[in-house]
Hints:
By secondary structure, the chain is of the alpha/beta class. It has a single domain, classed as Rossmann fold (3-Layer(aba) Sandwich). The protein has six helices and six strands. It has a six-stranded parallel beta sheet with strand order 2-1-3-4-5-6, sandwiched between helices. Helix 2 packs parallel to helix 3.
Amino acid sequence: MKTARVVIADDHALAREGLRVMLDRSGRFDVVGEAASGEEALALCEQHRPDLALLDIRYGTRGGEAGIDGLEAARLLSDTQPEIAIIILTMHDNADYLRAAIAAGARGFITKDASRDELLAAIDLVAAGGSPIRLRSCAARWWRPVAAPCLPRWNG
């Protein structure tokens, strides 16, 4: 199996480190960069050209000013490097964020309460061209499975 190259972007160092360790231990992924902001994620993706970008949806402020969030980073990556598969990883169990993520070009949307196995399966699915969605509150409202086998890429 080919090892997918991944950039991780989250403003919490502990989250980045935990994700890196989990991906490294799986043996299926090579973490080529870790970013604490949307700007850093864009720079690392330009430098390393990963197969996947795992982006938090929101980042904290730096020096009191907000930078590029995960949705804007996803939009910019989709426009400039469409070959990079984007997964939004978030604590926000929210249908509006899901719609915004799909509109920004994300192929996956996973809430941070996912288990290790669920997250690895979602990343595997995106690496294979699928589009996993894991959003508990929306599943009940939309009456459909939490994991969609394949969503079309939104370009509109």
